[in-house]
Amino acid sequence: MTLQKLAAISVFVLAPACAEVITGQWIIDSMKEIDRVQLTLHRRSEHGSSTNSSALQFSDLRGITRGQMETGASQARFEIVRSAGTFVCEGYFKAGQGAGTFTLQPNTTFAPEMRVLGYDNIPDDRIFAFAVHDVSPQFVREIKGAGIDNVSLDQLLAMRIHGVTLKFIGDLKSLGYNISSSQKLVAMRIHGVSPEMIRELKALGYDSLDADKLVAMRIHGASPEFVKEVAASGFSHPPVDQLIAMRIHGVTPEYIRTMKSRGVNVTIQKLIEMRIHGIDD
């Protein structure tokens, strides 16, 4: 994920629901983009712990100015307001860096709204995670409206972390991909299956590939560029499974050209078998 999207690295040790006050530590660092900061939140309790680092808009920090961040040592208090609750942060800043403690104040309307949407008894660790990644009732309504239903709490969180947005879903639909599985959508985002990639493959004659094939192509590096290189080596429009096998076993355009320069008249399948058996020269 790029910093232009919500990039997040999270580790959660899950715990049963509890009534404890949610507190922890925060760290903020300046970024090259003047309108963004890097926020790290750490929470620890007897039930579990989590550490999260994400890029935020500076405007998300309510109650503090850029000047307060960048000047000499000064105390600070600011809030990060989310649908699930508000992080009340106290601490200090010096030369663009800061640290301190936070308390998460749950939003009393969040649980009832989520209950109406089919999510009841959300545990505290998930309330915290939803506040961190801004999983809101509005987001849930949007994905339900897009035809994606029966999404677990874990999948709601994964969709937000990895950027499964309404725009992404809409772009896929415009290309003929009416995907109702949240797991497939998350996998596509994790592995970098983009609308741009799909359009490039369509232009190369690979139309209507299912989501699993697209993910496999990304995992193994069977990119549109690789398809073009293979075509330039004399093999036009091989099946996707062969393209993936070529990448897995190292049948590169260079290898194809080397074998052809030695007068070897082979098919792609034969080249794959040669590589499997170590016939490199």
Q: What string, H for helix and E for strand, traces the elements in order?
A: EEEEHEEEHHHHHHHHHHHH
Q: Structural class from helices and strands?
A: alpha+beta
Distance between the termini: 40 Å
Mean pLDDT over the full residue set: 89
Question: Low-confidence runs (pLDDT<50, min 5 residues)?
Answer: 1-19
Q: Tally of extended strands?
A: 7
Indicate the proportion of strand residues.
Answer: 15-25%
How many helices? The count is 13
How helical, in percent, are the residues?
40-55%
Spatial shape: elongated
Cα gyration radius (Å): 24 Å
Describe the structure.
The chain has 13 helices and seven strands. With 281 residues, it is of the alpha+beta class. Helix 3 packs parallel to helix 5 (153-161), helix 5 runs parallel beside helix 7 and helix 7 packs parallel to helix 9 (211-220). The longest helix is centred in the middle third of the chain and has 10 residues, at 124-133. The radius of gyration is 24 Å and the shape is elongated. Residues 1-19 have low confidence and may be disordered.
What key attributes describe this structure?
alpha+beta, seven-stranded antiparallel beta sheet, 13 helices
Task: Describe this structure in a few short sentences.
The protein is an alpha+beta fold and 281 residues long. It has helices at residues 66-70, 110-116, 124-133, 137-145, 153-161, 166-174, 182-190, 195-203, 211-220, 224-232, 240-249, 253-261, 268-276; strands at 8-12, 22-30, 36-44, 49-57, 74-81, 85-94, 97-106.
